[in-house]
Hints:
The chain is mainly α and 498 residues long. The chain has a single domain (12-495), classed as Growth Hormone, Chain: A (Up-down Bundle). The protein has 24 helices and no strands. Helix 4 packs antiparallel against helix 5 (100-119).
Amino acid sequence: MANAEVFKSKITVYVVACWIVAAFGGLMFGYDIGISGGVTAMDDFLIKFFPKVHERKLHAKEDNYCKYDDQLLQLFTSSLYLAALVASFGASKACRIFGRKPTILVASLFFIGGAGFSALAEHKWMLILGRILFGIGVGFGNEAVPVFLSEIAPVQHRGAVNILFQLFVTIGILIAGVVNYFTSTLHPIGWRVSLAIAGIPGLVLFFGSMILTETPASLIERGKDTKGKAALKKIRGVDNVDDEYEEVKRACEIAKEVKQPFKKLMKRSSVPPLVIGIMLQIFQQMTGINAIMFYAPVLFQTMGFKNDASLLSAVITGTVNVASTFVSIYLVDKIGRRKLLLQACVQMFICQVSIGAILLTHLNTTGTMDKGLAVVVVVLVCLYVMCFAWSWGPLGWLIPSETFPLETRTSGFAFAVSSNMLMTFLVAQAFLSMLCHMRAFIFFFFSAWILVMGLFVVFLVPETKGVPIDSIVERVWKQHPVWKKFMDDDGPKSQEMV
Length: 498
């Protein structure tokens, strides 16, 4: 069995450039997560598209928890994720047939189109169409980028390289917070500027993708062996890549025997990575993170912060998000995936329960919260965002991208992406209504999910640190006390999986 030490590599300027350019797909995703909450809190936007919500917002005695409860307003945020859910399956096929690089390019084009439609919207249907175009871009980008990064990264740095995707997501959220803070004073076009700027990372990814190399695994899988070996030499920065090339080629030969990868996913031997991939995405959303990141400005207004102060608080949480992701980049290949996930469950649980307790006892349905307590809540939100950023945020994307064998990698990851988008859609569509009806208990709701997540990691999530991506089956699934039972019943060919 090949070891990480066998595969020689150097980190070159070119391969770092490839990592950064591809990770701009994450920046586009993050910018959208961050921008929508700020835009929906802007009066000019509400007056134009959601005047009834604006009227409720102006009532001094309006219920703090319910003043933003509007299904169409939530659809503005959530429609993107429904589109991304559907698009992820088309993206999976595009990844397999055409390659990772063209799929990333297509994602950039949809983002540019979405930015244009959203910024120029005069009617709600234009606004929603822009969000749908964004969603298709998210579906293609979130499918292709993590797989691309995992496949071109050296095994000893795979965790850190893949987390660049999540790092750029957090940078996008932070940029969105800063943009919203300044554009909120540009009346009446501030919201248009915020949405239009989403096209900039799309343009960077479009032109930057011209320099990307296709991944060796994708080239060899599509019968381009010579180009695949040349690409492997280029991204490794060395000429002696024979051992790694042979391992990738063996994985590709097995992959070619699978004509229907989605059908292969229904086999028992595909259950472990499929369950892990889907459940990590579901749990990632049920931490409540996107509820907080989508609606941070709205949430802080609910607690009594004025509009500018709430937007500034969102910038603060965005900064914490970015800084904490660097912790994950440093630690993920040193201490492993499981320890980061479990530590975060403890910290997130404490923060969610504390926030819920403070809001339950000190935020009435009308009026504002004591300023000192409001600051405490912001600190708790930051502590919560901090541990999510070094654990469930990046690892929710990393682990599924490295645990599927090549023959089901793109199709399996499509299920993971679509699960993420479905849960994100449900949370985005329901959060403001849940906040209205559950009030402070919504934080206890998410806390209960965090307990379940911790137990799931303890018993079912294996450690994949330092394992070559095409050796996961033999060295992870077949060694796991629970999952090994699923790896020996698909006939002789399943025994030969790399």
